[in-house]
Write the structure tokens for this entry.
Amino acid sequence: MNQLVILAGGMGTRLRARLGDLPKPMIPFAGRPLLELQVELARQHGFDDIIIFACHRAEVIEQHFGNGSAFGVRLRTVVEREPLGTAGAVLAAMDLLADRFVVMYGDTMVNVDLGRLARTHMAAGADATLLVHPNDHPLDSDLIEVDGRDWVTAFHNRPHPADRWFQNLVNAGLYVLEKAALRAWAPPARALDFGKDLFPAMLAKGARLLAYTSPEYIKDIGTPERYDKIQAELASGVVARNSLSTPQRAVFLDRDGTLIEERDGLRRPDELVLLPGAAAAVRELNHHGWRVVVVTNQPVIAKGFCTEAELAVIHHKMETLLGREHAFVDRIYYCPHHPHKGYPGERSELKIDCECRKPKAGMLLRAAAELQIDLTASWMVGDTTIDLETARAAGVRGVLVRTGHGGRDGRHPDAPGHTVENVRDAVAYILAPTGL
Ligand SMILES: [Zn+2]
């Protein structure tokens, strides 16, 4: 696969003061048009067949790129005669499309490994793959629901009902598409948007849509404030650092007794209460560019007290409550196992001596591999000596909080770790210059 489609038809009305007469995707970053940065990223990842769908002031784009040879790619600019929506523009030009291609929006700053995205799409056999991520304002974002294997099961467009819990997963606007899966909608009978129209319609017809969750950098420049912020992040190296090839610092957070109130075997969403300061602590880590990863033992699954689907709703509630305070976790890992067999109602296949149950390091090692985490630069925060022992096993530094069990579990009295009052103080300690 080597074709990239860039949707560059945006008007950029809100950016008019910064754009002057330029079409939105030609907005400059450090003296270079955004579209040129996208073409360069594509070429670096082996995508050298590029189609740009342009509309407003398309001639500026045509003149800048020509046939792409000056940029090391084969490039065509397609001028839209009428606004057909993001998906409509693509569906109206099926003849130009390869059997499989990547779609990017021309108003996003992107630092994504396009090859890895494409390989994941192909390995899964998806009809479409959507790059998704948590954000710090999920309540006013369109959200995606997935099953336990990352297949999209529903689209939830804003506004969201206050009495339902949602996973913090947002369509970032980067797709891999199978041309064959689009034929039923081509040519488009009306203007169609990918997120609001085409993907929900594909899902309703039984198409297999994969959610590819990634912490890589992808942000849209829609407003002057966002444009200024992204310029600053490009200049300071934040854009470059947020890739899957750069080792990341992470804070691993225990769940019960650390982020949320301790309940003995919590098994229903209504039992979940965030601890004071938990959202602020997570938000602080988000702001400082740390990965935030929850790692929790949930033997309630093995014991048959709670299903995976019920646990997912509990985690959706936690993500919704954090999202209300503009905080997000990058990923949640849980161990569903329990080592001791012989109880009524248990799920015997999960009653094993696994590698993920804390104090073993399995969940942290898996997160390190999936999110490119540098364990030597990372921390684990929890309310038990099991968490401190986990930190030691994984090679991260440990911090014990006095909330929840407050370290009184007595399981690993020798495990090393600094002690603070709560998760907020733990984050302050970690972010303080002496803690680095
Ligand atoms: Zn396990």
In short: The chain has a mean pLDDT of 95. The pocket of zinc ion is lined by residues 335, 337, 354, 356-357 (CB under 6 Å). DSSP finds 13 helices and 19 strands in the chain. The chain has two domains: 3-240, 247-435.
